[in-house]
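Hey forum,

I'm writing up a methods section and want to include a predicted complex as supplementary material. The small molecule is zinc ion. I've pasted the protein sequence and the SMILES. Can someone with a working setup run it? I'll credit the forum in the acknowledgements.
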Amino acid sequence: MNKPITVKCPTCGAPVEWNDKTPTRPFCSERCKLIDLGAWAAEEHAIPGDPVVDDLFSEDLSRH
Ligand SMILES: [Zn+2]
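Reply by user p_vandermeer:
Happy to help. Structure tokens for the complex are below, copy them as they are.
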């Protein structure tokens, strides 16, 4: 009866269970959530070449 609903993490594309076990949904983790928010904020404020954001991105891509 309880069919697990799975969505894709918008940041890394990993499958994420859509239930109370995943409070960070639709993101797979707090980390991906922060990365996505960071990307959004970086675009919004147009910080050129922010090294912290660049670092988070490359690290996440290589991990998944
Ligand atoms: Zn993710």
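Some notes you might quote in the supplement: Residues 48 and 55 are 14 Å apart (CA to CA). Residues 9, 11-12, 14, 27-29, 32 surround zinc ion (CB under 6 Å).
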